[in-house]
Amino acid sequence: MARKIGSRYTANQILGRGSAGTVWLGEGPEGPVAIKLLREDLSSDQELVGRFVQERTALLGLEHPHIVTVRDLVVDGNDLALVMDLVRGTDLRTRLERERRLAPEAAVAIVADVADALAAAHRAGVVHRDVKPENVLLDMQGPLGPGGAHPALLTDFGVAKLIDAPRRTRATKIIGTPDYLAPEIVEGLPPRAAVDIYALATVLYELLAGFTPFGGGHPGAVLRRHVTETVVPLPGIPEELWQLIVQCLAKAPASRLRASELAARLREQLPSLAGLPPLDVDEPEPAEQPTEAEPAAAAPERAETVRRRGAVSLVPGARPDSNRDTHT
Fold this sequence. Notes:
Number of helices: 11
CATH architecture of the largest domain: Orthogonal Bundle
Keywords: ATP-binding, Kinase, Nucleotide-binding, Serine/threonine-protein kinase, Transferase
Shape: globular
Radius of gyration: 19 Å
CATH topology of the largest domain: Transferase(Phosphotransferase), domain 1
Largest sheet: 6 strands, antiparallel
Number of domains: 2
Strand content: 15-25%
InterPro entries: Kinase-like_dom_sf (IPR011009), Prot_kinase_dom (IPR000719), Ser/Thr_kinase_AS (IPR008271)
CATH class of the largest domain: Mainly Alpha
Organism: Streptomyces misionensis
Low-confidence stretches: 166-172, 290-328
Helix content: 25-40%
Mean pLDDT: 82
CATH superfamily of the largest domain: Transferase(Phosphotransferase) domain 1
EC number: 2.7.11.1
Order of helices and strands: EEEEHHHEEEHHEEHHHHHH
Pfam families: Pkinase (PF00069)
């Protein structure tokens, strides 16, 4: 059933539900839009509403071909909503589940698009904080790029920051998705642009291998591995590409590339990747659960199990997912 969102928008159809709220197919003065309506307990939190209004200028100013543009922020009674461009396509998690792993050329082309998006956001002083396949949308109406990849757009800017308020998260909790969290986040340091680079390198590794470099097992164990373990090499990709991944997964934030540098270096790799098939990589053995003698590290906010299923993208026909730990 349709409902009004503020004075300018109508939410017509639910596209999916996530832990932070519901995404609707809506209509605005200029045509179809996607409307993320935050949960009622979030919209009734005056501190969060204040942060929402403070972030308005930064979020509305993010304009880039590879960013899902936020068109409006609505605060109206019990409604707190982000109005965004509607992308006709699917999300990267859904494609990854369907294909298990991508050919290197397509994987690198998609990640280069996302790196471009992050470069624009970081120049504007915005850190995403939750880069993962669920938050990358593939525009099926856009032109095909290298490896047959559809244009990739990064979505969900600002939501992780909005819900990460001191009253909502205890000191022992972490906002984010365990597999993609940079070591400095695990150690309690404030998130800077480098956390997005680490997460994006993790996504690239996952697209190539079919699994994340430090995932598997109890979320606390995943967090420890981010801090203490080195990444396992992937056979079958050019050495220069592998070194890019290693550099962007460096434990020290200052050692990672900036987003603009990463985008340029990835695109330089594309000619050497043309025609390469997806990698033939064995899945790692399931990790053991922690024992009483080995307590887990701080648990992420609503942490997930070993694997996430497909996310809710801002598109008609996408599958709902109740397992996402931060937002839709």
